[in-house]
Amino acid sequence: MWGQPGHNIMLAMPRRITWVALLSLFALITARCNANPQTVEVTRVVIETTTKQGDPAVVTRIVREQREVVATPIPSPQPGSEIFIAPDPSRLVITLPGDPITLDPALAYDLLSLTTLRQMLEGLIIFDHLNPTRFVPVLATEVPSEENGLISADGTTFTFPIREGVLFHDGSRLEPHDVAYSIRRGLLLSDPSSPQWLFIEAIMDYAGGDITERIGGGAFAYDPAALVANAAPEELLATCAAVMEAVSFDDEAGTVVIRLARPYSSFLSIIASLLSITDQEWAIANGAWDGDCATWQNYYAPGIEGSSLSRIANGTGPYRLDHWTPGTELVMDAHRDYWRVDGTPLFPGGPAGVASIPRVILGTTTGIEWSTALLQMIRGDSDLVVYLPEDQIVVKKEIGEFCDYKTGVCTPNPDNPDGPLRKWDDLPDFSRIDLLMNFDISADSAYIGSGRLDGEGIPPDFFNDVNVRKAMATCFDYDTYLNDVLLEGGIRNNGPIIVGMLGYNEDGPLYEHDPEACAAYLAEAWGGVLPETGFQFSLVHDSTNPSINAIGAILQEQLAAINEKYRLEISVIASPLYNSALLAGQAPMFLAGWLEDYHDPHNWAHPYTVGVFAAMQNMPDELRGRFREYVDAGIATADPAAREQAYFALQQLYYDNAPGIILGQASTYYIEPRYMGGWYFNEAYTITPVYAQSFRSR
Q1: Residues 6+ apart with CB under 8 A from 550
Q2: How do 329-334 and 359-364 pair as beta strands?
Q3: Which residues, including other chains, have CB under 8 Å from residue 98's CB and lie 6 or more apart?
Q4: 393: which residues sit within 8 A by CB, 6+ positions away?
Q5: Which among 406, 325, 334, 316 has a CA at the least distance from the CA of 124?
Q6: Residue 66: is it exposed, middle or buried by C-beta count within 10 angstroms (0-12/13-18/19+)?
Q7: CA distance 219 to 229
Q8: In the chain, domain spans
Q9: Which fold has domain 34-72+98-359?
Q10: Which of 596, 605, 599, 603 has the alpha carbon at shortest distance from 496?
Q11: Which ranges constitute the DSSP H helices of 510-639?
């Protein structure tokens, strides 16, 4: 992830190619269902007895020493024939590529942390897995809307009725103040490595994503020591008071009310994607913020190691933490008092009650070759391997059936119908990598050669000429990229917003590989001197994945084919240097990937046109201002039609100005043993709950 507050930048290849693939057993996929539409460190466990509201309670601590939708879900196939039986139906063993970074719900932002945490903690609402434009209630009993009176007419006040009778893993009862505390604590922590910038922007309207933005003119941003030492006490109290006012609760009425500074149409999407609730009293007892406005600054921007909740968990979800030994395993047991009953299944026809798999063991492959991890799975020591590389021959030999995610239909592998694995292929992804151009390169850049238009370099404003940018967009061979780099597993996008999302214009213009057009644009650029003088510059990327070289090589070859004087070099540098080069504006052209924070067009439009990418590109203020009009229009209204028109216009403006080369959206796959069932799609998440999965009965 990028170091700027929460901006989720993956400077790596899409999931199919690298770790971003994190082919989670919980499902790192997106999907659009389209049938029958209708509207609608070592740790130990310490068990203590404490008192909450006068009643004794057992506490377990971990101590370090409106659209058409599919009416019915399409389930994954029932587990296979009699030969496909789980080695041990009492536990599910999952092999991960590493450890979670944290279990603190206010700080969890990486895929492994979220994958783990979301099995144990829940939020207020989630996306409907049949229609990602809708939500379903979880710890809230209703999804706020203007129709049910839970969203104010001006779109700024959201009321959440909180479900009664829900128990945390320690036996405490969920109450509205727990929800409010979870949100308030996140806002006040405001850690730069967390997703809290999203909540701060939406709720407080602080563009910098930091709760201290209004204190000393932002002088203390992400500097806890300076904040504690120098901030005026009245400013500290006022900041906390503003958070308290924005997020309030009424335990008697059973409600939580969130007041936004302005309408923000993506707010429910953020809540559905990133909010997890923990118990206030438990958190305080374990060293978290005590809820007092007089002390919040002592907990500000703690970092992962500074949080007392990073290695423990207490939620309401279907699984509870048993123990975690970092580097070895994290073990969860089914929550015996889970609140879901027959009337409240995960989805219509889905699971209810206590999880069917009693124990889940998350092991790590840190220091283990993938082939070894795969053998563990084949011999039954592991049930699932997260990110199972499909190009391994042994994997191909073990696949017994191929399944269509759209229909749920599986077809036997004619070469090995008794193979023990099931593969779901060509699953749409929601990450992408693109080529972006710098409008105003730093004059001291080592990647622009002579710094002049003399055939040995380029001037710093080389890409300020729209003809140069359009030339690069028409010179790139997209088919080669899709076929050879994405292994025939991708689809073209014609703008920042991904396919299938509100605001994506399927009929919008698209740059195609056109060498003649590329040559013409370059002949017109810079007063027509380029065919004679030529140019030389570097495409810069980091060294995390050598396969990225293929992207640069595609453009390099096409430019040279037009004119041998058009010289593109490829500079591979270590990640820290790469990030520094981007921040300093030294990269003329660079590869940047995006993995969405939450499923909404704003999370795609913003970084590419006015946010982090636009900043790295030194995009001119005039162009960013034009983009800003459409970005603001898209976020200011909840009306889908109005939002769509704003994003259509943004998409057209992006095409006309070609600030970047939109390469293509990757697809991915999912492999599971045939003795498992219950896996399903939800395009808004990288995670499908283990709760939904099951073993074949003997």
Answers
A1: 481, 484, 485
A2: antiparallel
A3: 112, 364, 365, 366
A4: none
A5: 316
A6: exposed
A7: 12
A8: 34-72+98-359, 428-667
A9: D-Maltodextrin-Binding Protein; domain 2 (3.40.190)
A10: 605
A11: 515-524, 530-533, 549-562, 575-583, 602-609, 612-616, 621-636
Whether residue 357 contacts residue 695, with contact meaning beta carbons closer than 8 Å, is answered with: yes
**What is the secondary structure of 193-224 as a DSSP string?**
TSTHHHHIIIII--TTS-TTTTSGGGTTTT-H
Q: Is the distance from CB of 132 to CB of 599 less than 8 angstroms?
A: yes
Q: Are 534 and 565 in contact (CB under 8 A)?
A: yes
User: How far apart are the C-alpha atoms of 165 and 162, rounded to whole Å?
Assistant: 10
- The Cβ of residue 443 has, within 10 Å, a number of other Cβ atoms equal to 12
Q: Which two tokens stand for residue 217?
A: 């003119």
- Nearest CA to 4 out of 307, 261, 207 is that of 207
Alpha-carbon distances, residue 290 vs 190, 206, 297, 299, 423 (angstroms): 16, 24, 11, 9, 48
Q: What are the distances in angstroms from CA 429 to CA 32, 602, 686?
A: 11, 17, 9
Q: Are 276 and 315 in contact (CB under 8 A)?
A: yes
* CA distances in angstroms from 480 to 239, 567, 583, listed in the order given: 53, 20, 30
Segment 148-205, tens digit of pLDDT:
999 999 999 999 999 999 999 999 999 999 999 999 999 999 999 899 999 999 999 9
* Phi and psi at residue 167, to the nearest 5°: -110, 135
Strands 55-64, 43-52: pairing kind: antiparallel
**pLDDT tens-digit series, residues 12-70:** 222 222 222 222 222 222 222 223 333 333 333 343 444 445 554 444 444 444 433 33
428-667 CATH, one of 3.20.20.150, 3.10.105.10, 3.30.70.870, 2.40.30.170: 3.10.105.10
Distance CA 570, CA 587 (A): 11
Q: With a cut of 50, which residues of the chain have pLDDT below it? A: 1-52, 56-75, 393, 698
Copy the structure tokens of residue 152. Answer: 């104010």
Using CA atoms, how far residue 204 sits from 2, 119, 308, in Å, is 22, 29, 26
Distance of CA 229 to the CA centre of its chain: 35
Strand partners, 361: 93, 331
- Residue 288 is given by DSSP the state S
Of 217, 209, 214, the C-alpha closest to 237 is 214
User: Crossing angle, helix 640-657 and helix 621-636, to 10 degrees?
Assistant: 160
Closest CA to 424 of 450, 405, 451: 405
List the one residue out of 330, 386, 372, 430 whose CA is nearest residue 103: 330
E strand intervals along 439-552? 490-491, 535-542
Helix axes 515-524, 549-562, angle to 10 degrees: 70
What is the C-alpha separation between 175 and 44, in angstroms, rounded? 29
Amino acid at 90: S
Return the structure tokens found at 104: 């603190």
Type of residue numbered 422: R
Judge contact between 552 and 541, C-beta under 8 A: yes
Crossing angle of helices 466-475 and 515-524, rounded to 10°: 160
- Phi and psi at 480, nearest 5°, equal -60, -40
Residue type, 43: T
Q: What percent of the chain has pLDDT over 70?
A: 85
